[in-house]
Amino acid sequence: RSDFVTHRIIIDCDPGQDDAVALFLAFASPELDVLGITTVGGNVPLELTHRNARMMCDIAGSDVPVHAGCDKPMRQPLRTAEYIHGETGINGIDVFDPVTPLQAQHGVDFIIETLLAADDDSIILVPTGPLTNIGTAIDSEPAILAKIERIVLMGGAMREGGNRTPSAEFNILVDPEAADIVFRCGRPITQMGLDVTHQVLSTKERVDRIRALGNPVADATAGMIGFFERYDMSKYAAPGAPLHDPCTVAWLIRPELFTGKDCNIAIETQSELTLGHTAVDFWHVTDRPRNVHWVYQVDSDGFYDLLTERLATYGDAA
Ligand code: BDR
Ligand code: CA
């Protein structure tokens, strides 16, 4: 393709079945140069999120370095989500001891060092878990800000309401102080909240297409979705699970699949009742700056076509 664009990205995640699918999609996408994976305590504790990320590297044959970051939020106690993801965080596939090593360097130090060594505006951060690592990195080394081209994150909600409290989505609720730092950092942000991620449902037909690819990554994806979807299917009476986190990666590869609007978004950090709420000024009723590209709509068939097409490439090497 003549218009080929390469984005250099760092994926900051808490796998999590949907984080795992985001990693698989990124590894299989030649538009993306994944410089590293940092993990954070979130869906499950940190020891499991870095183990799970390394398992995904093994399964996908990726040599992207994995760094463990923060094990707890900046100020809050860690809330986890085993009731959705299972005890391992990736229930639906068998756990094994990965060959991919854990890097010695702390995830936050990796983010800071990588950004400081980069050109201005040259690296995209892709957080798909609580924002603890990114918030901590910005807080301890503000000089990294100039290096950040954009932050493309999964978190928050407007019309869908919260999924962990009536007001808050899980990733933002777990570390609202870190989210507040990120949302006020002044760099461009693209946000995939529940309003859009609840549109990419893993229907039986879509998962069958993935399973039929018959390669190890497709098998792992279908296996993990099979476990992950049972929670949302019963909670929302939906025909499948929302693949929240891969929306970030898909937006980088095929932004034309998505519709969004530049808005001010601010994080509630004070109220006990609405902690972690993302206040989306969709109609610009304040003078606050439009700090976020808020994505609220997706061509979900196009999303699954893209995911299936990219997962199919894992069969090429076999
Ligand atoms: C988000 O929370 C986690 O459970 C998922 O991995 C996703 O990042 C959805 O609210
Ligand atoms: Ca996640």
Description of the molecule:
There is one protein chain. The chain is of the alpha/beta class. 36% of the residues lie in helices and 17% in strands. The protein has 12 helices and 9 strands. It has helices at residues 17-27, 46-60, 82-85, 107-116, 132-140, 170-174, 176-183, 194-197, 204-211, 216-236, 246-253, 300-312; strands at 7-13, 32-39, 66-68, 123-127, 148-154, 189-192, 258-267, 278-281, 292-298. The chain has a 9-stranded mixed sheet with strand order 3-2-1-4-5-6-9-7-8, with helices on both faces. The longest helix has 21 residues, at 216-236. The mean pLDDT is 96. Calcium ion binds next to helix 1.
Brief synopsis:
With 318 residues, this protein is an alpha/beta fold. It is built from twelve helices and nine strands. The mean pLDDT is 96.
Q: How many DSSP E strands?
A: 9
**Low-confidence sequence ranges:** none
Multimeric organization: single chain
In this entry the ligands are:
beta-D-ribofuranose, calcium ion
Q: Structural class given helices, strands, pairing?
A: alpha/beta
How much helix is in the residues?
25-40%
